[in-house]
Write a structure and sequence with these properties.
By secondary structure, the protein is an alpha+beta fold. The chain has helices at about 65, 95-100, 100-115, 145-160, 185-200, 230-240, 245-250, and strands spanning about 25-40, 45-60, 70-75, 90-95, 175-180, 215-220, 220-225. It has one domain (about 25-250). It has a six-stranded antiparallel β-barrel. The longest helix is centred in the middle third of the chain and has 19 residues, at about 145-160.
């Protein structure tokens, strides 16, 4: 039996770093940049609505890690049973590997590095909100960008809710989270997500690129994941003497 031992370089905020203990930021929802209409079943409850790559506004960061989060960010939700708010609220900021199970965090970082397309960040929104006009006219268009952005959402949820130690546990048609292709869930988005999931490599065997992700969480509102730029990661890691290890990981 293979035993995996990890050095979690992703936990770049907690290990005796000279960073403030309190890491918070105020955040509000703005729009969905790319994606579409999504329906999933989670533990028997059905959730339907617009989803995909979201645009959030932030302000008043507290703590070194929070300072590296821009005031206009692109993010993915990873908590299906909460909702976002147009009003600003205070969120906690942590490296993703501190906020969730470390294996799940590493799989999402792998997924993001391999399939997240920064070209999606074009500030051409497809959806604002049910009380803000809903979908923009002509959206959600059946474009590859929308399908891939929606696929990323499906894949993140599947890792969060169903990963159980093997890649075979990542199956969108069974388990805690189910997302069968339908009129609500375009078959291409579900198919892309399942292909991406099936091609992931367990963290103990993976040696490829990893995105540097942080969790922005609130006990009453939807938790999200966003990426911080590499220069920020290097600055934070160097404070804790972890820079050399991170370079070896790349």
């Amino acid at each position: 039996m293979k035993v995996c031992i990890y050095v979690l370089v992703g936990i770049f905020c907690a290990q005796s770093l000279a960073i403030a203990c309190v890491q918070t930021i105020e955040m509000s929802y703005y729009a969905v940049e790319a994606g579409g209409q999504q329906q999933v079943s989670l533990n028997g409850s059905t959730y339907t609505g617009a989803n995909g790559l979201m645009v959030m506004n932030t302000k008043n960061p507290i703590g070194e890690l929070s300072q590296y989060i821009g005031n206009h960010i692109w993010a993915y939700c990873y908590e299906k049973d909460q909702y976002s708010s147009f009003s600003y609220a205070t969120f906690n900021v942590k490296p993703l590997a501190e906020a969730i199970n470390s294996d799940k965090a590493q799989l999402i970082s792998q997924l993001w590095a391999l399939h997240y397309d920064h070209a999606w960040q074009s500030d051409t929104y497809i959806y604002y909100g049910g009380n803000q006009g809903g979908f923009v006219a002509g959206q959600p268009a059946n474009t590859l960008e929308n399908q891939q952005a929606l696929a990323m959402s499906f894949a993140i949820y599947e890792i969060i809710y169903d990963f159980a130690g093997s890649i075979n546990s990542l199956n969108l048609s069974q388990g805690n989270l189910i997302a069968n292709a339908s009129g609500t869930n375009p078959s291409l988005a579900v198919s892309i997500a399942q292909t991406w999931l099936s091609n992931l490599i367990l963290p103990c065997d993976y040696t490829g690129p990893m995105a540097q992700l942080v969790s922005i969480s609130n006990g009453s509102l939807q938790d999200v994941i966003t990426e911080i730029p590499e220069p920020a990661t290097i600055a934070i890691l160097s404070l804790g003497g972890l820079l050399a290890m991170w370079k070896r990981r790349k």
